[in-house]
Amino acid sequence: MAKTIRVGWLGGAALAATVALALVQVSAYAQTNAAPAAAAPAATEPPAAEAATPAAAPEASGPVDPFAHGSIQNGTGKAAVCSSCHGPNGNSTNPEWPRLAGQSAVYIAEQLRLFKSGVRNNPIMKPLAGTLSDQDISDVAVYYQAQTVTGLEADPSFWKAGSDLYRRGDKARNIPACIACHGPAGRGNLAAGYPALRAQESVYVAKQLSDYASGARYTGTNVPTADPNSVMMLTIAKRLTPDDIRNLASYVQGMR
Question: Exposure check for the chain: N or C terminus, fewer CB within 10 A?
Answer without folding.
Answer: N
